[in-house]
Amino acid sequence: MRRKVVLLTIAALAAAATAAAALSASPSVTITTPKGNQKVSLRQNPYLAVAGTAAFADTSAGTTEFFLRRDACGTSADNPHLSIMSGVDGGDGCGLIVDQVGPVGDVAPQAAFTDYPATDGMPVAYDGTQPTNGQISLSGAQVGLAEVDVDLQALVGGQAVDIGSATGSAILDPTGASTPVPFSIAPNATLDGSDIQALDLRVTIHGPNVLSGFVALSGASWVKVSSYAASVNKGVEISVDDPSFSNPTPARISGSTWSVAIPTPGLGKHTIYAESTQGYDSSAPASVTFSVTK
Q: For the chain, which ranges sit under pLDDT 70?
């Protein structure tokens, strides 16, 4: 339950950023048929062809990189989180809830995890055909073997879903500033193309090591989520005489054009509204007014 609360809270925080991003990355739509002020005979045209063009953002496959960050260590300002921005972290080298000494992490792994929820970079269009890779760098005494469990959860359509988990291990290097422990989470094909509202990476450290449960930050620990440059979920809807789109009709999209046939409305003037959507973004509506005659 706590995990879902974390995701819901972060989704709410990301909503404002999503709305701001939509202002500069919204899809667009035009109506080419019918023409403005066109007269349509109801007797000759029981169905009305409506068509136009639409433009959407590029959906090339790639990755979205998140860095593990903390603002402080063990205070009210701690705030473990994921961010697409890297920088110097006040909580660099901060430990988990317990330090890893001998078998402690194996006996009580539930007492040695930290959640890193994403605070920016949302939404993410998840690519479920490629793995999600990353590394957790460890500092401290760096003596022994460390095993790092990672579990990546997301919020999709308001529901918590598990993207996947993985375990990485490494012999710690006491001569270095930190030891990177790489991991790879297998693709989750069932979620391919999902628009992720929130992310949370849970990190658990265990294994036979001495005082090495400290996570090196400031760019040293990160996760690259396989993703598309923009949502692959695209659509165009039209509405007759209703700018609120309370009961829209979906159109068929073919490349940069769209079309749909609707029953011709009754005699008189009518306005058709069209709107294109891509993920959580919507275009400014287009409209055209025409007349239906006998």
A: 1-25, 95-112, 210, 212
Contact 210, 198 (CB under 8 A): no
The per-residue pLDDT for 209 is: 74
The distance from CA 92 to its chain's CA centroid, rounded to whole angstroms, is: 26
Query: Using CA atoms, how far apart are residues 132 and 187, in angstroms rounded to an integer?
Result: 7
Q: Is 242 helix (H, G, I), strand (E, B) or coil?
A: coil
State which fold the 61-228 domain adopts.
Jelly Rolls (2.60.120)
Cα 115 from Cα 68, distance rounded (Å) = 10
Q: Which residue has the tokens 């046939």?
A: 261
The answer to whether 293 and 39 are in contact (CB under 8 A) is yes
Determine the pLDDT at residue 199.
97
Beta strands 101-102 and 195-206 are unpaired
Model pLDDT, residue 34: 97
pLDDT in tens, 66-76: 999 999 987 88
Residue 113's pLDDT is what? 85
Closest CA to 68 of 180, 195, 197: 180
Give strand pairing partners of 237: 250, 275
Which element (helix H / strand E) includes 49? strand 47-55
Domain with CATH 2.60.120.260 in the chain: 61-228
d(CA 91, CA 280): 34
Per-residue confidence (pLDDT) for residue 46, from 0 to 100 = 96
CATH class of 26-57+232-293: mainly beta
Single-letter amino acid code for the residue at 59: T
